[in-house]
Design a protein that fits this description.
Layout: H1 18-22, H2 26-45, E1 53-57, H3 66-73, H4 86-94, E2 99-107, E3 113-120, E4 125-129, E5 132-136, E6 142-145, E7 153-156, H5 172-186, E8 191-196, E9 202-206, E10 211-215, H6 220-234, E11 240-244, E12 252-255
């Protein structure tokens, strides 16, 4: 008589879970975490890493003082030199209108220190709009109220809105006037002022007081190149009041 009994399959032993394996050591792990936290807090407050010196390097005759850089950096006297946010310090310093770039360097020996250095922006023009006048650099950033450099060109921006120091002049017509000023500078024309006439044409006054009427600025470089030949042809016998270049093929001269 045959038996129908089949061999029993023994239950497979399950591999213990990670939680089960770690459970006997949880107290030890908790103690280690507490020790790490306490050690980290002690290191953060340790006098070994406390800033002992903040050095500041600014260019000669800089419009930004050491004190202003120090105040903007806002480094607390008990700060840990390695926990300082260098990027945030740099951004605060670069928010000073005249600052172009700031660098932050940290070190430990002989005592924990921070070295701050800056490069500064230079005035390239003064812009007037309504009753306000500001000094700007080559990127149209407003450096300060008023005109800080009397020898640079004064731009008449008409009804444009001018931002506060640290902002950038975004008015498109002011941007076009500044581009025209650069074109005229490339033509070796030193200007006292630049703006629009009542018809919207470009008009400048050079450093000798002669009015230069350019009209449409689409071909400004060509018109600017005619100023020197026209003046050379006039000579110095009669004082010139204005040179009209609105028709570059037939420039005209107005005498005083």
């Amino acid at each position: 008589m045959k038996s129908d009994a089949r061999p029993r399959t023994l239950p497979r032993r399950r591999k213990p879970s990670l939680a089960a394996r770690v459970k006997p050591f949880w107290i030890l792990m908790l103690v280690l975490l507490v020790l790490v936290a306490v050690g980290g807090a002690w290191l953060a407050r340790s006098p070994w890493f406390r800033v002992a010196r903040v050095g500041i390097d600014v260019p000669l005759a800089s419009p930004v003082s050491d004190e202003r850089v120090r105040a903007a950096a806002a480094i607390a006297p008990d700060a840990n030199v390695w926990l300082l946010n260098g990027g945030a310090i740099r951004k605060r310093i670069e928010a000073i209108p005249y600052v172009d770039r700031a660098t932050v360097h940290r070190g430990q020996f002989p005592q924990p220190f921070v070295e701050l250095s800056i490069t500064v922006r230079r005035p390239t023009a003064c812009v007037r709009a309504g009753d306000r006048e500001v000094t700007i650099d080559a990127s149209s950033r407003v450096l300060q109220p008023g005109c800080a450099a009397p020898t640079v060109a004064r731009i008449d921006a008409g009804p444009a809105k001018l931002p506060l120091p640290g902002g950038t002049v975004a008015d498109p017509d002011v941007g076009r006037l500044l581009a025209d000023a650069r074109t005229l500078a490339d033509a070796n024309l030193a200007l006292r002022s630049l703006g629009r006439d009542r018809f919207g044409g470009l008009e400048a006054v050079d450093v000798t007081g002669v009015v230069l009427k350019f009209g449409d600025d689409a071909d400004l470089a060509k018109k600017a190149s005619l100023v020197a030949p026209v003046r050379a042809g006039i000579g110095t016998k009669r004082p010139v009041r204005a040179i009209d270049l609105r028709s570059p093929g037939t420039p005209t001269v107005e005498f005083r």
